[in-house]
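All the exercises in this workshop are built on plain-text protein records. A learned vocabulary of local backbone shapes supplies the integers on the structure line. Once this layout is familiar, the rest of the handout is easier to follow. An example says more than a description, so a record of this kind follows:
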Amino acid sequence: MKTISLAHRAIALPLIGLVVAWAFFMAAQYSDLYVSIDYANAPEVKLSTYLFLTGIAAGSIAAMLGQNLAIRARLELGEDNRLARAAHRFGNLAVIIGLAAGAVFAIGNFLSAFNLFQGRTESLWLRFLGVYLPILLATALVVVVLLRAFVFRKDLKDQNEQGEKKGLSEAQKALGLGYAVPILATAAAIIFGLVVYDVTRTNLEVWVWVIIQVIVVIGIVAGTRFASKAKAAKPAAPKPRTALAAGASTLNFVLSIVFGAAVTIMSFTFGSAAIEKLRVWPQYIDGKEPTTTEPTISPLTWSWLIDEMLPAKVLLILAVVGIFWTITERNKETENGN
């Protein structure tokens, strides 16, 4: 790794995180094959929940580390270095995708909780492990990655050391609260709704939804106030750049990842479809109704691996190699070092 530049490693890390996330997602879907389709018999705590969360965490943390390397590369090579700048933008995009995945995961667990445990008498501990803990972990992941990636960064610390230390420090704290408060408020509202549902065992009444929305709005307003406070602080003077160059650079970055994004989606879709084909539903034989509605799971075979799963893996590799290659090729250093 020492012979690979910081900028190249910054691009590679989020892509490695993508591969790891894909593996955990496929493992999660495979584990769900052995979960009963009947809600009454479904387990209170599913392995797939934590496998999905682990995949999201791996991708988000890898993206954050890649962003950190890209910032180091820009500090060492200069703000105008094309490859370091492209790596930084790619790292930012990867972090945002990871944050979005974490938010969707938390909200998805919240919505699925109403059907999974309806009419059942499971223990509070299992309920906590199956629903509450994943939401809390996903919220913590989003907050930590968000603050670490966009607030408490090395380049911002360097600005603090060079500028007005006290004022910038307060601005940094306000910026962190501006990011974190709305997320924490939304998580608190989600937990509140689940607690009310668990206690009453009925659909949430109108006033409960009102309270939930009030909590969310309070968090947004408080976050906006903190963000405004941070915005009012004296910023570091940016380096001048022309709008034309910025627009061309942005277009160049977008074009370099569109292909990879499309192929990545295809790899996840084809992988999911391949795993689902292992589920064999009972069929009518000679006009006789099947004795069970539960499907059987086909064993893993070389034929399935080659015909069904291998194309998804090849697409994933193609996406990873394609993204890395297009970003590095489009942003090669010129003779003047930029």
